[in-house]
C-alpha cells in the first residue's frame, strides 16, 4: 500500500495510520497533562475504524483483537483464541477454540458467531473491502458451538494462520448496519485494550484504556494520536513538549540524540519506496524506458544522503536480508547500460539532452504526497538520475485526493511492504487481476510469469516450490520492471523516556500507532 494516508480499506492495515491529514491538533493535546497519558504524533489518520472495511487487518489494533496476534519477533500467539489453531493433515481445515470470558466494550460476550460474521461479511462482494483477495483461500467459515470456529480452505495456503490476526467485530451491532456506511466506522465496539473516546477528523484521535480487557487494564490510561502531516512540524511539536513521541524521518530524529529526556527507537522494516510506472502512459509503458530507469538510479546514494544510512538499497519488493530474497539480483547504478538500452530502442538524444522516439519525448510526471520530505527527496534524486540517461521526470507534489485519479497515467513515488510471508505484500502489488483496484497494483503491472509465480506461491504448501516461485518472480521483475524500486527504509521513532517495556517489531509499510515502540502500548509500565 502506499505510504500515504491509508486511503482505501486495503491500506488500513495500520492500526491508527493512513490518510494524510493536513492540520495539527489543537492545544488540548498538550502532553504532560497526566503521568498516565501519552500524546503521539503521526503523519496520517484512517478513513475508517471498521475491520469490515480493512481497518487493522494486519494486527496490533488497539480497539479490536484478532484470533491470533504477533509477539515482538512476529511469532503468532493466541489472542481471542485460547491457543494456536489445530490444523488438519491436508492443510485445509483450521480449528480455533475461543478464549473464555471475553466481552466487547459494550459488555456483550464474544462468541464464535462474531468470528463467522466478521469473515463472511469481509468475503461478501458487496462489502467495500479491497483486501478481500488476501482471504481468497477461505472456502467456508462455520461455528461449532459458541466457542469453536472452523475454517475450511479451497487449497493449502501455507501462511493462513497469519491472516487470522484480523480484528473481530460484534455481530449484534454490525449486522444491524450497512457494512459500507454504518456507524462502526466511526463508533467502533471491540474487545481491544482501548476504547475510542473521540475523533476530531484531521486533528486527533483520543483513546481510553479498557478497564475490562481480557489481557488486563493498560497502565497508559489516555492515548492521543495527533495527526500532523508535515515531518518538520511533528519534530517541532515534539521538541516543544507538545508531544510525548513521534515517528520521524531519520535526519530529523537525529536532532534529538543529545536530548537525555528522549529515547530513539529504530525499527527494521519491509517498507520500501518505489516509483510506479503506469502501463497506460506511453512513455513509462515502454520496457526500454523502464529498464533504463532501473539501471540509471543510484540506490546507495539515496540511502546515504536521504535516509542518513537508516535503510538499504531496494532491488525489488523484498529486502536483501529477507530469507526469500533472490540472491544475485543486487545491481549498482550503470548509466552506460541505461544509455545503451535507450539507444537500441530508438530513443535518440534531442533538445536539452532529453531523448525522443518517433516524435515523443522521454518525459513523464512523478507525483509525491505533499508534506512527505523523504518522498520528496527520493523523487528529486530519481529525477536527477533519470536526466543523466536522457529521461525527463517532472516532479510534482499533491494531496492524495489529487494523486488518486491521476495515478492511472502518472508515476507516483509510492510506499509498500508487508512483513511475514511474501504472499502478503507481493500479490496485491503485482498480480494483474488487481490492476487498478484502488491502491492495489498501482502500476497496472501485467506479466504472465509473475502472475504464475504469485499463484504458485499462494497455492502451494511445499516450501521448495514456493521458494522457487518467488525467486523466479524477483528475477522477472529485473527483466520487466513495472516499478523502479529505490530504498527499503527503516522507521525511526523518538519518545519521552518515562515508560518501560518498549520494543519494536520488524514492521510493514504502514506504521504509526500500529508499529513503533507503541505497538504494545497496553504492556507499557511507568518508570518508577
According to DSSP, the number of beta strands is: 26
Q: From the alpha-carbon coordinates, what is the Rg to the nearest angstrom?
A: 23 Å
End-to-end distance: 40 Å
Compute the average pLDDT.
91
What is the structural class? alpha+beta
What strand order characterises the main sheet? 10-11-12-2-13-24-14
Shape: globular
Biggest beta sheet attributes: 7 strands, mixed
Strand content: 15-25%
H/I helix tally: 13
- Uncertain ranges: 1-32
Q: What is the percent of helical residues?
A: 10-25%
Spell out the key features of this protein.
528 residues, six-stranded mixed β-sheet, 13 helices, 26 strands, disordered N terminus
Describe this structure as you would to a colleague.
The protein has 528 residues and is of the alpha+beta class. It contains 13 helices and 26 strands. A seven-stranded mixed sheet has the order 10-11-12-2-13-24-14. α6 packs antiparallel against α8 and α11 packs antiparallel against α12. It is globular and about 70 Å long. The chain starts with 18 loop residues before the first strand and ends with a strand. The N terminus is likely disordered. This is ABC transporter substrate-binding protein. It is found in: Cell membrane. Keywords: Signal, Transport. Belongs to the bacterial solute-binding protein 5 family. It is a lipid-anchor.
Amino acid at each position: 500500500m502506499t505510504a500515504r494516508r491509508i486511503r482505501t480499506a486495503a491500506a488500513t492495515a495500520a492500526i491508527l495510520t493512513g490518510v494524510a491529514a493536513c492540520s495539527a491538533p489543537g492545544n488540548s493535546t498538550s502532553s504532560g497533562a497526566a503521568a498516565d497519558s501519552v500524546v503521539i504524533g503521526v503523519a496520517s489518520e484512517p478513513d475508517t475504524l471498521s475491520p469490515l472495511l480493512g481497518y487493522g487487518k494486519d494486527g496490533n489494533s488497539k480497539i479490536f483483537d484478532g484470533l491470533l496476534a504477533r509477539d515482538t519477533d512476529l511469532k503468532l500467539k493466541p489472542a481471542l483464541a485460547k491457543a494456536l489453531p489445530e490444523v488438519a493433515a491436508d492443510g485445509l481445515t483450521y480449528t480455533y477454540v475461543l478464549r473464555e470470558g471475553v466481552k466487547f466494550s459494550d459488555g456483550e460476550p464474544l462468541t464464535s458467531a462474531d468470528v463467522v460474521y466478521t469473515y463472511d461479511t469481509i468475503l461478501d462482494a458487496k462489502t467495500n473491502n479491497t483486501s478481500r483477495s488476501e482471504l481468497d483461500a477461505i472456502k467456508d467459515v462455520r461455528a461449532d458451538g459458541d466457542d469453536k470456529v472452523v475454517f475450511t480452505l479451497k487449497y493449502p495456503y501455507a501462511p493462513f494462520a497469519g491472516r487470522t490476526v484480523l480484528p473481530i467485530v460484534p455481530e449484534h451491532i454490525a449486522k444491524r448496519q450497512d457494512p459500507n456506511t454504518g456507524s462502526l466506522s466511526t463508533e467502533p465496539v471491540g474487545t481491544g485494550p482501548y476504547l475510542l473516546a473521540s475523533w476530531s477528523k484531521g486533528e486527533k484521535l483520543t483513546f481510553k484504556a479498557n478497564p475490562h480487557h481480557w489481557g488486563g487494564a493498560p497502565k497508559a490510561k489516555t492515548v492521543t494520536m495527533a495527526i500532523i502531516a508535515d515531518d518538520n512540524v511533528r519534530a517541532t511539536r515534539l521538541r516543544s513538549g507538545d508531544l510525548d513521541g513521534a515517528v520521524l524521518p531519520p535526519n530529523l530524529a537525529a536532532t534529538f540524540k543529545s536530548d537525555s529526556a528522549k529515547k530513539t527507537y529504530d525499527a527494521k522494516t519491509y517498507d520500501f519506496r518505489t516509483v510506479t510506472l503506469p502501463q497506460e502512459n506511453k512513455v513509462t509503458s515502454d520496457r526500454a524506458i523502464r529498464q533504463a530507469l532501473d539501471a540509471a538510479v543510484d540506490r546507495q546514494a539515496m540511502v546515504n544522503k536521504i535516509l542518513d544510512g537508516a535503510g538499504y538499497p531496494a532491488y525489488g519488493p523484498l529486502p536483501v536480508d529477507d530469507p526469500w530474497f533472490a540472491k544475485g539480483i543486487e545491481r549498482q547504478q550503470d548509466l552506460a547500460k541505461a544509455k545503451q538500452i535507450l539507444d537500441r530502442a530508438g530513443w535518440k538524444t534531442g533538445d536539452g539532452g532529453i531523448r525522443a522516439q518517433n516524435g515523443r519525448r522521454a518525459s513523464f510526471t512523478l507525483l509525491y504526497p505533499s508534506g512527505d520530505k523523504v518522498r520528496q527527496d527520493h523523487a528529486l534524486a530519481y529525477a536527477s538520475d533519470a536526466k543523466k540517461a536522457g529521461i525527463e521526470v517532472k516532479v510534482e507534489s499533491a494531496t492524495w485526493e489529487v494523486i488518486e485519479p491521476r495515478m492511472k497515467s502518472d508515476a507516483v513515488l509510492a510506499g509498500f511492504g508487508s512483513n511475514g510471508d511474501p504472499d502478503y505484500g507481493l500479490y496485491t502489488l503485482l498480480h494483474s487481476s488487481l490492476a487498478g483496484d484502488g491502491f492495489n497494483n498501482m502500476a497496472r503491472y501485467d506479466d504472465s510469469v509473475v502472475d504464475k509465480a504469485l499463484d504458485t506461491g499462494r497455492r502451494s504448501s511445499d516450501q521448495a516450490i514456493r521458494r522457487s516461485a518467488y525467486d523466479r518472480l524477483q528475477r522477472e521483475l529485473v527483466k520487466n520492471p513495472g516499478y523502479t524500486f529505490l530504498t527499503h527504509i527503516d522507521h525511526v521513532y523518538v519518545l519521552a523516556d518515562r515508560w518501560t517495556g518498549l520494543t519494536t517489531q520488524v514492521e510493514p509499510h504502514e506504521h504509526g500507532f500500529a508499529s513503533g515502540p507503541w505497538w504494545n502500548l497496553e504492556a507499557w509500565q511507568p518508570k518508577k
